[in-house]
Amino acid sequence: MRFEEGGGGLTCHGGTFTLVVSRLNCWCSCFTFLSQGCFETPSMATEEKGTPAEQSQLSPPTGAPQDSERAKDAEELQSACATVRAKLDKLSAESSLMNFKFKKFFVLRPGTLNQAIKDVEALVKKEEDGNVQSVWLMAEVDHWNNEKERLVVITDNTLMVFKYDFVMFLCEQIQKISLNYVDRLVHGTFNFPKHSLLKREGEGLRIYWDRMRDPSFTSKWNPFSVDFPYTTLISHPVSSINDTFASLCDLHKFREHLKVVAEKAHARNPAPGKANGVTVLNQPITIEAYVGAMSFLGNQNKLGYAMARGGLGF
Fold it and tell me: What structural domains does the chain harbor?
């Protein structure tokens, strides 16, 4: 066996040693490549890639438009919050004012309404009127557009409208209408003559019990006249104070209940010369008043209601 030194290392002319040396050179090259590329340390990777701060400094400022949009959104949110806060403050002030006004009604004083209901129920004659079906808190609108506080009682046979003094706990006036004579219920908005200076918002209910009789001319122009074959009712102003008063002042439920009880009274005791049943109409309710300066002042100041008015009276 003979050895010669060449460019690739020692060469053995026997053949076997040459293969071993070539494989050793290949393994050394692979180890060097793996040690430099695949097995680099974290410090080397950090040095090559650089720190995040350095990268952010080197990268272009792509976040600037996003920051401006966020600032704009924040300003819009603050503006919206300020608007909502202002509306809530205004609503709170209006609510406080309404509560202050409502507290002036004597009917809202603790125990007042319960005592009033007991007093009017005691005036019901069971032999003549029957049992009490329901009690309602309403307001009556007369033919001169004046509002007046009323308690209304529906019994088996009678519709009773009470003028009750909530200050002295005293019933001052009673109007009785036999239910078997009630023939028409008209509900809707209010209507005035063409040249009238008056107006009235909201809806009402007019109860007719003698459609064949019209009020006389003198009755229409007499502000104290009660000779009318109908009565007009509206919801009491305190209907929105809570659920209890909302139920007592519900004009829609009152109309439905009155219709049912009146039809039973018609069937039980039909009136002679009158058609049985109750007609319900949805149409404007006409009030034939033209100037009505006194009614305007009275309604604006709630003179028809029992209220605390300082030193001026009730």
Answer: 3-58 (no CATH), 110-312 (2.30.29.30)
Token pair listed for 212: 């064949």
Q: What is the pLDDT of residues 107-162, one digit of tens each?
A: 999 999 999 999 999 999 999 999 999 999 999 999 999 999 999 999 999 999 99
Q: pTM of the predicted model, to two decimals?
A: 0.68
Nearest Cα to Cα of residue 157 among 185, 199, 125, 184? 125
C-beta separation of 106 from 167 below 8 A? yes
| Cβ atoms 209, 183 nearer than 8 A | yes
| DSSP sequence for 48-88 | HH--HHHHHHHS--TTHHHHHHHHHHHHHHHHHHHHHHHHH
DSSP-derived 3-state class of residue 137: strand
Contact (Cβ atoms closer than 8 angstroms) between residue 262 and residue 166: no
65/70 Cα distance (integer angstroms): 9
pLDDT of 100 above 80: no
Residues 99-131 as b or e (16 or more Cβ within 10 Å = b) = eeebeebbbbeeebbeebbebbeeebeeeebbe
pLDDT of residue 8: 46
